[in-house]
Write a structure and sequence with these properties.
single chain, mainly beta, Jelly Rolls, 2 domains, 7-stranded mixed beta sheet, about 10% helix, ConA-like_dom_sf, carbohydrate binding, Galectin_CRD
Length: about 400
């Protein structure tokens, strides 16, 4: 029975890791329990597609608030209820925790996310929690925040509690066919097309454009330029869809202590169900002190017909460095994507789906983003003969570009 339970619910293995709550969590637990704001009994049958939407006001003195998904209807104070999922928002620390409680003991806490902390004192908040077969999906203010793999059967869900320093709580439930629900500010923005025609541009001039962008982004006066909000959802309009000869150029900077970031060419803007993905590119940064700066684990793959395909994971030395500016160019060739980082070709990825089917570019993770544009008829290719100009370019690229804090 235990083997069957753990095979159906991958997160169930954490049951063996149950522990007593740490001092900070215990403090917040007792503080929140004294301020129970809303108790909601789940009437609908818990099944995939059931969506919970929470809306309320964060108090000016807010330290912490939690949303508990309980396994049974709680009494006025239910300290022994099993908790399928607790979402704990800690405003002094600027992060959101996820955990489960079974027989009075908590499992390992999860607190990482692609999304920056988006909750502010004195402002309203909007959360969407979606129940699926494998996990809970959590959205904050219209953006997907994290997913939480089930540690207990979701069919045990019977009630929801909201506790802590919030007010005016409203809870709605309904079944949805896609996730997340987009708010006005989280709708995809149109990706502009580079006005300059690069049909006859020489390869050296293209390199100069990239190096000029790197120098500009590395200057101190550029440090405080407004950046594009993340996660970034860019929409490719009919007149600038990706096709052979076109490219997507992305300019930004890696954060000082990065874990990972990702770029996805996909069809559709939803997170669930998983959309078709023509190219998924994600560097994960290594933290071993013996690794060279810029070494990363590079993942690339595509998602078609319900499966990830053509998955490749490589350990590559790149010019993507903590605190460093970058220009990533993804070029559409006749049969494959070619990805350049700071003028260096990093890899080829054979088409699993033609690029003109892509309508959304999804960028998220530990970077600051300044520009995303489509270039037409580009000439990103390796020169056959190195001229004096190209040798000078090579010397400039080998020189150190200042690394600025962000």
């Amino acid at each position: 029975m235990e083997t069957k339970f753990m095979s159906v619910y991958p997160g169930a293995s954490t049951v063996a890791l149950r522990r007593v709550m740490d001092a900070m969590s215990l403090f917040y637990e007792k503080r929140s329990a004294a301020h129970r704001r809303k108790h909601f009994k789940v009437i609908q049958c818990p099944r995939p597609g059931l969506c919970f939407v929470f809306h309320g006001m964060i108090l000016m003195a807010c330290e912490h608030f939690v949303i508990d998904f309980l396994t049974k209807q709680g009494s006025e104070i239910c300290e022994e209820c099993d908790v399928l999922l607790q979402i704990g928002s800690r405003l002094p620390q600027n992060y959101i925790t996820r955990n489960s409680r079974l027989k009075g003991k908590w499992g390992p806490e999860e607190n990482s996310s692609y999304l920056t902390f988006q909750l502010n004192r004195g402002k309203s908040f909007w959360m969407q929690i979606l129940l699926t077969e494998e996990c809970f999906f959590i959205s904050v203010n219209g953006y997907h925040f994290a997913k939480y793999i089930h540690r207990m059967p979701y069919r045990w869900l019977e009630a929801v509690d909201v506790l802590g320093d919030v007010s005016d709580i409203v809870i709605d439930t309904y079944y949805v066919s896609e996730y997340p629900i987009r708010l006005t500010h989280s709708l995809p923005r149109a990706i502009p097309h580079l006005s300059k025609n690069l049909r006859d541009t020489e390869n050296t001039e293209t390199e100069w454009m990239v190096l000029s962008s790197l120098a500009k982004m590395s200057s101190k006066k550029f440090l405080y330029q407004p950046s594009l909000p993340l996660p970034f959802y860019g929409k490719l309009l009919d007149e600038n869809v990706l096709r052979e000869g076109s490219a997507l150029r992305i300019e930004g900077r890696v954060r000082l202590m990065p874990q990972r970031f990702s770029i996805a060419f996909q069809k559709g803007q939803e997170i669930w169900p998983q959309p078709t993905v023509s190219l998924y590119f994600s560097p994960s940064f290594l933290r071993n002190r013996h690794d060279k700066i810029g070494t990363a684990i590079i993942t690339r793959r595509a998602y078609l017909n319900g499966d990830w395909v053509n998955c490749t994971v490589s350990r590559l030395n790149t010019s993507l460095r903590p605190g460093g500016a970058f220009v990533i160019v993804i070029v559409c060739r006749d049969e494959y994507y070619e990805l350049f980082v700071n003028n260096r070709s990093l890899f080829h990825f054979k088409y699993q789906m033609k690029p003109d089917c892509v309508d959304i570019v999804n960028i998220r993770g530990d970077i600051k983003l300044w520009e995303v544009v489509v270039e037409g008829n580009t000439t990103y290719k390796k020169p056959r003969v190195r001229t004096a100009m190209e040798r000078a370019l090579g010397a400039w690229k080998r020189s150190e570009i200042p690394q600025l804090q962000i």
